[in-house]
Amino acid sequence: MSWIHDLLAGIGVGLVGGLTSGFMGTSPGGGLVVFTVLLLGAEQHVAQGTSLITQVPPTGLAGVRRYWQSGNRSPLQWIAWIGLGFLVGGAGGGYAAAAVSDSVLQWTYVVYLVALIALLILRRDRKDGSHAAVDRDVLPWLPLLLIGALAGFSSGFMGIGGGLAITVGLAAGLRVPQHQAQLVSLIFSVIPTNIPAAWIYWSKGLMVGWPAIVGILAGLWIGTDLGARAANGVSKAVLHRVMIALISVMALYMTHKALT
């Protein structure tokens, strides 16, 4: 029956999104959008709406717990300022996405995946290997607000959750230790800051059917926990190569979709 196919395909989509999220310390939207198109045959707008809607429940909680148990912490002030910017940017991104074609969204998504590959290739651990938390008084509020706004806009416009912008902004822009930046990013897969953007897609009916939604949520719960376990317990060099290969395949597939 079709609903069984949709349920199983949804579980597959959720597992891939969750594994990526837990390992990279970003929201699961990257995998969700691509594999909703691939496994469920959804159009780009529908895939993005599905991604945002399934990220409203706190599916990243298991991943946050794994990073927390490894000694990483997130100052409340960071969450507050980033969250405020996220809410504003998310609504703007959602309205902007509704005004452009599937082709524009697909090419934008290809650029995002290429940027993610570059991040994986260029990312380096801090020389001291320290996971110590940055002093909460060091980071000014305005950069945090801007990081949140950029993350929110990318979330609403591409349906990706915005975690990449948070991780890169904190780690590369503000010199926050990588694991701590990834924890902050994962926290935003627990806090439903993408509700404004998700509501815009929901109100326009841009989502897959409920069997697939249920499957995606189940897959996300499992995949995020497994991905976080891998990130904290397996060789980083090997995992980086695997992730680069996976995202490269995703980028090639989305390029094919944009050209056809």
UniProtKB/TrEMBL annotation:
Segments crossing the lipid bilayer: 78-97, 104-122, 142-171, 183-202, 208-226, 238-256
Topology in the lipid bilayer: Multi-pass membrane protein
Localization of this protein: Cell membrane; Membrane
InterPro entries the record matches: TM_pro_TauE-like
The keyword ATP-binding belongs to this UniProt entry's keyword annotation: no
A Pfam family recorded for this sequence: TauE
Chief place where the protein resides: membrane
Keyword Transmembrane tagged: yes
Keyword set, alphabetical order: Cell membrane, Membrane, Transmembrane, Transmembrane helix
PANTHER family assigned to the protein according to its UniProt record, in alphabetical order: MEMBRANE TRANSPORTER PROTEIN HI_0806-RELATED
Record-stated family: Belongs to the 4-toluene sulfonate uptake permease (TSUP) (TC 2.A.102) family.
Name of the protein: Probable membrane transporter protein
Lineage of source species: Bacteria, Pseudomonadati, Pseudomonadota, Alphaproteobacteria, Hyphomicrobiales
